[in-house]
């Protein structure tokens, strides 16, 4: 029986399926761990939870690259999850925060990307230990959505990471999308601003680091949002640091070492989720925004540099709808194309040209249990419940068609991890190339093979 491993960056959760009736005590290179049985539908899986792979990032380890966890004696209890990463309970976007992505000027200890290096250390732990759980270290697949997809994409491009796994799934974002990474100068400006907000000395990098390391975690988590401007959701981002990322993602994308199989995709109405939080006039009602609010939203997302292209954009999107929601839908389609649909296709095309094998999907089913307004459509993040099999829980009220769709999705994802092509039942998916631009539609119906997703619009945004 073939075995494989997923490393999920959602944030990441290690999930291993064992093929044989092994003992619940496993010997890793760090020491022995005691797992437990968990019920899954009509069966059981053996779960090993909270296994440490890195030392806690506290005190003088805060902001710095992670250090491997110390080995232990005896049998470690791995029947409960470990502590969660620190985050504010009321933040919508906790992924890229100061704790993992602070970069300090002229400080070699805090160059940024500690969060990505932490993920890399977790991947390395899987490589070193997965065989003890019945897995194959040569068949590791990374899997992430949204900010997790940016992380996965950066591991795909990073020379130090991409040798550790074989395949990757990237849902709804790519690391070459607008605003996915920062340069050092921008990150340093934010670090200095953060230091000023917290009354830390900012002239000497070492003193700034020491001061920020001593700030209470809750206070630091709140203060970091004081560095934001405009529409940004995250105070700190992955940075081109010269170490984890020796060059920009766009430059690394053209490397001839890009030979992996990738499963990438987008949802039909990605942007609607973000508009509700960011643009005046959008709410949980009909969000019938005015033209003035539309123009304000365009400025929020794209800035003044888009003004010379206003007439072109109007021509492209003026036919979205003729009803009272035309300005609302105009902005949703514009942002969905510029930030999601077109960057994902451009990334896929470039990756294929440099030797990789991308497969593209387009998810277009609105969940019957979705509580958001109907106009928001197939929102960002709403494929996850089907990929993870949530509809198989009968108490949640999904339709029979959605249950079957979820089963198909799980089979696609698992088949991709096992074979490198998500196609099932003797029907392989076509690879996306710059010439054919082929993709698969995913909904409750049988998948359809199509090409040229939003082609005219993407010619403009490219």
UniProtKB/TrEMBL annotation:
Residue limits of the Carboxylesterase type B domain? 23-94, 98-461
> What reaction is this protein's catalytic activity?
an acylcholine + H2O = a carboxylate + choline + H(+)
InterPro entries cross-referenced by the UniProt entry:
AB_hydrolase_fold (IPR029058), AChE-related_enzymes (IPR050654), CarbesteraseB (IPR002018), Carboxylesterase_B_AS (IPR019826), Cholinesterase (IPR000997)
Catalytic machinery residues? 146, 270, 380
PROSITE patterns, per this entry?
CARBOXYLESTERASE_B_1
Q: Top-level EC class, please?
A: hydrolase
Q: Where in the cell is it found?
A: Secreted
Alphabetical GO CC annotations of the entry are: extracellular space; plasma membrane
Q: Which GO BP annotation is one of this protein's?
A: acetylcholine catabolic process
| Secreted listed as a keyword | yes
Renumbered to this chain, the signal peptide range is 1-19
Q: Which GO terms describe its molecular function?
A: acetylcholinesterase activity
To which protein family does this belong? Belongs to the type-B carboxylesterase/lipase family.
Known function: Esterase with broad substrate specificity. Contributes to the inactivation of the neurotransmitter acetylcholine. Can degrade neurotoxic organophosphate esters.
Q: What is this protein called?
A: Carboxylic ester hydrolase
According to the entry, what is the taxonomic lineage of the organism? Eukaryota, Metazoa, Chordata, Craniata, Vertebrata
